[in-house]
Every structure is written in C-alpha cells, then in structure tokens.
Write a sequence for this structure.
C-alpha cells in the first residue's frame, strides 16, 4: 500500500470536490429544463430553487396532443428505424465485399468509391442541386437514403471481418456452404458486437437529424423533431398564439393560464432526450469499444 | 464531383450556363462578408486547439486520480451523456439558462443584486460561450479515449517512480503524460483535417442577427448564400475553396502522422 502525504490527501479532497462541482455544472442546466417543463406558475418571479412551483404535466399533454408537435416526433422515429436498418444492411454487406482482398478491383473500389468521395465532396450546394433535380426535396427518404452508405462505418466493419479467423469460413466452405451461407451463418453472428455498436451510433445520429432536414425539408408536416424544436426555441414564431390553440385543443380555457413558451420547448427537449437516455446504458457499453476500433485502425 | 464545375460557371436568367473562369472566386474574395466568415472560422479553430483539445486530457488525468470507483463511474456517466444529445437541444438549454427574463443565470445575478445580461447577443462573448458549450457537451466523451490510454500505462513504471521518490505530480509528468503522448499526438494530428467542418450545426442554431459579426463561419455563409439566397455558383466557389484548404490539411496530417507516430503508419 502506498504511503500518502498530506499534500496528496489535500489534493484528493479538492479533486473530489472539483468533480462534484463539475457534475453539478452538468446537471443544473438539465434540472432547470426539467423544472421549466413541469412548472405552470406565473412568469416573472425570481426563483433559485430547482423545484417547480406549480407542478403540472400540461406541457407534456400538449406535446402528445398537438399534431404540429407529435408529427415531427413520428417522422423522426420513421427515419431512425428505416435509416438504421437500411444503413446496416448496406454497410455490413458492402464491408463483406471489401473484406475479400482477392476480389478483382478491390483496391479500385476502396479508393474510388470510398476514400475519394470521403475527401472530395461537392459541398452542400451541388448536393442540394442534385437532390432537387432528383425531385427528392420535401420527402422523408432524402433524410436517410443519400447517407445510408457510410464509408467510415464500412471500413470499421471490414476491419472487424478481417479479425475473424479465415479458417472458420474455409471450414464452412468445405462443408458445402455458399457465400451467402458463410456470411449469414458465420460472419454476421461473429460480428454482432461491432454491428450492434455501429447500429446504436447510427440510430442516435438519425434521431438527431437536423442539418439535412433544414436544407431539404420545407414542408412543416415532414419536419424532424429537432427542426420543430428549433422553430419553437430559437425562432419563437407566433408561439403565444400557438399555446392558446393548444390549450383549447386540450379543452382548457386559455384565459386561465399564463404559460411560457419555454415550458413547451423544455417539455419537447426532455421528450427528445428520453430515447437517448433509454439506449444510453447500451451505448455506454459499446462506445469505448467503438472508439478503440476507430483509433487503432484509423 | 461534376457539381464543382458550378464554381467556374454562371447562369443567365434563361438557365443557360457559360464559363467564367475564376470570376466567381474574384467576386467572392472581394466581399467583406466572405473574409469575416473566413476570419471567424479560424478564430474558432484557434479556440478549439487552445481550450477544447486540452480539456478532455486534463479531465481524464484528474478523473484518473480518483480512486473511488463508483464516483468515477458516476462522473463519467453524467459527463458523457450530452455528447449524444443534438445541438438543437444543447442550444435550447443554454438559451433558457442565459435568457434575460427567466434564465437561471440571470436570476442568480439579480438575486445578488446585479443587472441581467443578454449573454447570447454580445458578439465579443460569443466565441467564449460557444467554446464553453462545446466543452460542456464533448469533454466527457472525448476523455474516454484518454482514459483508455491511461489504463494502458504500465503500473510497474509507477512503482519504479515511487521508489525513485516521485510524488503524484511528478508521476503524472514523467510517467502518465509520456505514456499517453502518442494518443494525444495522433488525435491532434487527425483533427487537422476536420477543423473546418463540423461547426455548421451548432453555429446555425446559436447564431442570431446580433452576433453575426463573430458567429458567421464559412459553412453557414455558404448555406445562406447558396441555399437561402440561391447564388449557387458563388456558394460553390467558396465550398471548393474550403475543400481545398481541408484537403491540404488532410495531406499535411497524413504526412505528419507518418513522421510522428512510432510505427510510421499513415491515416489514409
């Protein structure tokens, strides 16, 4: 056991306190948002406590009830599920092809289909013009089809396939298995950890789809959840009127309530964080691994 | 790729394209707005290297000194979460916190008798606030890789250092830092190629008319010019210019990583 000097003990105490303050710095903003989303008290009083004065689930009921809010939520779910599945099918199959070094033109595919587009991209404007001429503006698939094949993920998966002993697939071959059987019965089950990790990250990415939606989506019915959130939080819009309408939808008298727009946007922020918090334990299990794969082979 | 041609072309009203050579570039380089975005972009890059790169290293070093496992784990769990939350929500949280009327920060200031400040409308403050938010969001996640590297440092080295009479600080300086030096160098070098990308989303959500003079960067400028205002050819010219810089940085990073890393591997 190490001897600890007084200096070290002092340092330890300060370190622990420092990290406690740091954690508070992370938690207080989130607690403040939770408080705002649950509080329907009057605007304007100075309150430093983080408990709601007049707790109510009213804002959450608005989120569930109002179509302009729950439709973007459903859109986000649609693109998350279809985007992740499409992306995983393409990337796992593509990586399998790329992992066959003996295949003719393998180097060509890697350089011309993967690495060069990774470095040279036309930038957002030419891409936008291409998407527009394809007639994909204001459609949901534009948010997950163009970026389904991800060069980076494909290379990660390929590297993992390489780490699977060749003798396994060779022995399956001898038993008479074809390429597809080898892939589905041998390679895929063994690559499950890396595929699960990449699927989780891809899913979180699609859930947070924002930039693409801002560029390609004009129709408010096709908004993703983050876009809707931005409209409310940042642009404000005619939010006061919206709130009145939402109260009437819930069958409540708007004149009895003095609600803040912040409350509604807070409730939406919390709602958008919930799926991430739900998958967070799994993410946590995988992300160290995922990062390591990236760093070692990168 | 053919889209790049747009940078050297213009349209007539009837949609006829014709070549103009480098006219678009000349035009762009003569606008002050382009240079403003260009300058701001590099200001953010400088802030990243001065504050955002060291932050997770420091975080990992400090966290590594904590011996209570559950405490370490809790701190890590909480600090990593914001990385997975979209910038829209992060921006929303900070806008509410800093809001001049109901924001928590201003309520605290007023509670102690100060004047409330509208933080997000002060151009001079924006780079600092933005840097703070980026650290707040990313420090936990970025530190994971350093923590993994720290776990890989040979414990025998520490024992040897203790026998030689080194205290905790000296151990950190002479054993821990050299132990993770390679990881730091590789990550810094790798980040060169990405310095001009990845800021679009946060800037786009945080930007407002008051702070445009310090917040506008190349990619948001391209978006405004190209998508919102329809000046495709000018925006493409800037995009191409930006891509050339990124490419130069990427090749530089590749060259450096060959020379700096132990086994001389390249990143391409």
């Amino acid at each position: 056991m190490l001897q600890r000097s007084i200096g070290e003990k002092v340092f330890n105490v300060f370190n622990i306190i420092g990290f406690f303050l740091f954690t508070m710095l992370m938690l207080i903003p989130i607690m403040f948002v939770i408080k705002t989303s649950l509080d329907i008290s009057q605007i304007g009083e100075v309150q430093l406590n983080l408990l709601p004065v007049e707790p109510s689930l009213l804002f959450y009921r608005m989120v569930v009830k109002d179509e302009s809010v729950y439709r973007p939520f459903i859109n986000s779910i649609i693109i998350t599920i279809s985007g992740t599945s499409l992306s995983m099918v393409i990337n796992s199959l593509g990586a399998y092809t790329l992992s066959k070094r003996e295949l003719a033109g393998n180097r060509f595919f890697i350089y011309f289909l993967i690495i060069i587009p990774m470095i040279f991209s036309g930038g957002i404007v030419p891409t936008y013009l291409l998407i527009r001429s394809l007639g994909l503006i204001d459609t949901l698939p534009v948010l997950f089809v163009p970026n389904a094949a991800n060069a980076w993920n494909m290379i990660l998966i390929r590297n993992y396939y390489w780490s699977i002993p060749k003798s396994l697939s060779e022995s399956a071959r001898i038993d008479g298995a074809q390429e597809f059987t080898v892939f589905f019965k041998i390679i895929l089950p063994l690559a499950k950890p890396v595929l699960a990790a990449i699927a989780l990250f891809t899913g979180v990415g699609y859930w947070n789809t924002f930039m693409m939606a801002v560029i390609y989506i004009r129709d408010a019915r096709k908004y993703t959840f983050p876009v809707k959130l931005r409209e409310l939080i940042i642009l404000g819009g005619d939010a006061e009127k919206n709130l009145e309408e939402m109260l009437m939808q819930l069958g409540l008298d708007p004149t009895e309530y003095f609600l803040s727009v912040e409350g509604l946007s807070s409730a939406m922020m919390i709602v958008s964080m919930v799926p991430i918090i739900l998958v967070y334990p799994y993410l946590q299990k995988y992300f160290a691994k995922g990062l390591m794969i990236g760093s070692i082979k990168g | 790729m053919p889209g790049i041609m747009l940078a050297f072309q213009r349209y007539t009203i009837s949609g006829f394209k014709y070549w103009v050579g480098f006219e678009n570039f000349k035009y762009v380089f003569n606008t002050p707005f382009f240079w403003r975005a260009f300058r701001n972009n590099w200001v953010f890059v400088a802030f990243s290297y001065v504050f955002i790169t060291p932050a997770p290293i420091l975080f990992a070093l400090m966290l590594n000194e904590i011996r209570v496992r559950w405490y370490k784990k809790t701190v890590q769990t909480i600090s990593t979460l914001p990385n997975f939350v979209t910038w829209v929500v992060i921006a929303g949280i900070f806008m509410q916190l800093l809001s001049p009327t109901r924001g928590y920060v201003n309520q605290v200031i007023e509670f102690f008798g100060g004047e409330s400040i509208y933080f997000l409308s002060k151009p001079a403050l924006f780079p600092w606030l933005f840097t703070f938010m980026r650290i707040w969001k990313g420090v936990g996640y970025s530190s994971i890789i350093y923590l993994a590297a720290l776990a890989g440092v040979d414990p025998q080295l520490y024992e040897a250092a203790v026998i030689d009479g080194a205290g905790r600080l000296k151990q950190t300086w002479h054993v821990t830092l050299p132990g993770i030096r390679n990881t730091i160098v590789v990550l810094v070098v790798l980040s060169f190629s990405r310095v001009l990308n990845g800021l679009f989303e946060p800037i786009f959500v945080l930007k407002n008319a008051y702070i445009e003079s310090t917040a506008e960067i190349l990619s948001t400028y391209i978006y405004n010019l190209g998508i919102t205002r329809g000046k495709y050819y000018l925006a493409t010219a800037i995009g191409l210019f930006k891509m050339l810089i990124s490419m130069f940085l990427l090749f530089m990073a590749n060259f450096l990583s060959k020379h700096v890393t132990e086994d001389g591997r390249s990143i391409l």
Observations:
- Chain B touches chain A through 75 residues (CB under 8 Å).
- The mean pLDDT of chain B is 82.
